Amino acid sequence: MNEARETIRRAGLDLGFAQVGFAPAEAPAHSEVFLQWLDRSMHGEMAYMARQDTVRRRLEPAAALPGCRTVIMVSLLYGPSDAPPTDADADAFLRPILAQYSQGRDYHSVFEERLSRFSESIRALHPAAAIKAYVDYGPVLERDHAQRAGLGWIGKNTMLIHPTYGSWLLLGELLTDLAIEPDAAFLPDHCGTCERCIEACPTGAIRGPRELDARLCISYLTIELKGAIPEKLRPMIGQRVFGCDICQDVCPWNTGPEPADTAPFAFGQPLAPASMALWAEQLLEMSDEEFARRYEDTALSRPGRSGLLRNVCVGLGNSGQPEALGLLERCLADRSPLVVEHAAWAIRRLREGSI
Ligand code: SF4
């Protein structure tokens, strides 16, 4: 089956995936850790993760695809940026900071298109094969399978890391009933004694090696959380309006990789204005329908207009720039109570200096 495996791998690499690896469809190595993570409610409001049916599918690939025998893991490269923005950037107090992956087309669509073409290539070789594709919203513990498939190790920041590509990897997978000889697992743990990601996380979300409390993670707070951001965490978010890359930016394994070719994610126009003030103005005047049209096929659509404007208010409050006060006062009249409450907090923070 080695020859068949290499033919499939070649087909995946020809489609532009950076890595293609094969893992047996076994229970993920960290199944128990995942169950404990759920027990401790570290998934926050992401209730879908704790649903019985999705938990079962995460732990048993055959529950997601009957007869599943192989998990084909693939990755796409997406970073790093040339110069990751930081809160300390003196001329950029009003600049919104967005997670690197969000600055283009939604990677889910890019992935789905490629995985669909990859499935077709495999079906051309094996017409009877059952194949199911997932990107990260699917019920799959993909980092475990990726490590088992030889794509990298799971770092203390919980990201998959490869010695050449760092952690700028987006993962997707094909479950199949084809019996394909697995690749060797990636066994070395190259984190060693390093703990930079744990030390750098402003909210302390990485409680220990490979233990991420989503309820504290800035990505969760600015994207997945639908309601109010806990007040004590707001100052730590800085100007991160959508997601966070701090634990990746500080990782020594991310200093080597060349910036990836992001052409597949190109959106054709900048998604966010260069200033949070301008962005707040635009969002204030947008209907929900206009917002949906403007951000269709981008990750920024996920928190919705009010969620994004909530985040911009927090960023303005953290900017230390009193010229943002007028705009925040306009936000007090927004139709969303969520925005109004965060705008009021931001005004207090700008006036009082620290809350
Ligand atoms: Fe591992 Fe250090 Fe990177 Fe964290 S920053 S993932 S500890 S190498």
Structural key phrases:
single chain; alpha+beta; four-stranded antiparallel β-sheet; about 350 residues; globular; two-stranded parallel ribbon; binds iron/sulfur cluster
Class from helix and strand fractions: alpha+beta
Ligand identities: iron/sulfur cluster
Strand proportion, as a percent range, falls in 5-15%
* Secondary structure tally, helices: 15
What shape does the CA trace take? globular
Descriptive account of the structure:
With 355 residues, this protein is an alpha+beta fold. The protein is 38% helix and 11% strand. The protein contains 15 helices and ten strands. The chain has helices at 2-14, 31-39, 52-59, 61-64, 107-125, 142-148, 196-200, 218-224, 234-237, 246-249, 276-285, 288-294, 304-318, 325-331, 337-352, and strands at residues 19-24, 70-77, 97-98, 131-134, 153-154, 160-161, 169-176, 206-208, 211-212, 240-242. It has a four-stranded antiparallel sheet, sandwiched between helices. The longest helix is centred in the N-terminal third of the chain and has 19 residues, at 107-125. It is globular. The mean pLDDT is 90. Bound molecules: iron/sulfur cluster.
